[in-house]
Every structure is written in structure tokens, then in C-alpha cells.
Amino acid sequence: MKAIAMFIDMKGLRIHARHGVDPQERRVGADFLIDLRLKTDFARAAQIDELDGTIDYATVYEAVTDEMRTPSKLLENVCERIAARLFATFERVEEIELRLLKENPPMGADCREAGVEVRYIR
User: Do the Cβ atoms of 103 and 32 come closer than 8 Å?
Assistant: First the structure.
């Protein structure tokens, strides 16, 4: 048996942060949802049943929350920073799929979420 693709998924991370074009958004903040998919090879970890050989998603969460603390006007910029941080921190990551949504965006419309989705390769 041979795995042809391996992914670490983290879905529905909810983080309060201060991103937005309007200064009020950066003062008050909003809730953001993050879905993250990291392509990697964790075959060794699967065989030895140890964290060594894979990516610790608790450490991924720490990196993401740290980047979310830095206010940005655009969600596109936040995604770029998160991806750069994850690639720099985890050599095993080959590809990143990232979705970042702002809940209840202040745009004068009834909208549950608005955001961006991007896929990066090393």
C-alpha cells in the first residue's frame, strides 16, 4: 500500500483579530474563520506512531494566531503572511490551501461571511 497524497487539515479555526480597511475595524476587530490544508509527507510518522515525521498542528495553530495578531487592511495580506510563516517554519510543507473569512463584514448588507481563498506551493 502506498499513499499518493497526504494532508494535514485544520477547519473552522475561530480567531478574533483586527483586520479591515476601515480604522474602526482595526480598533474593534471581528471574528475570523480559517480553514487550512497543508500538503506534506507524513509516511514516517504513520509508520512509527510518533510526532516526529509529521507536522504538529498545535504549533501550526500558534503560528497562525501569531500572524493574526498583526492588523492588516486586506485579508489577502494576512494570507500571504500566514503562508510565508508556515513555509518558513515547516520544511515538510509542500503546499498550503488557506481560506480566511470575516464573519458579519461591515458592508451594509446581510452577509454571514466574506473572505478569500488561496493556494500556495513552495
Answer: yes
Q: Grid coordinates in use for 28? A: 474593534
* Residue corresponding to grid cell 487550512: 36
pLDDT band at residue 108, thresholds of 50, 70 and 90? confident
Question: Mean pLDDT in the chain?
Answer: 94
Can 2 be counted among the known catalytic residues? no
**pLDDT above 80: residue 106:** no
Catalytic residue among 2, 11, 39, 102: 102
CB 15 within 8 A of CB 64: yes
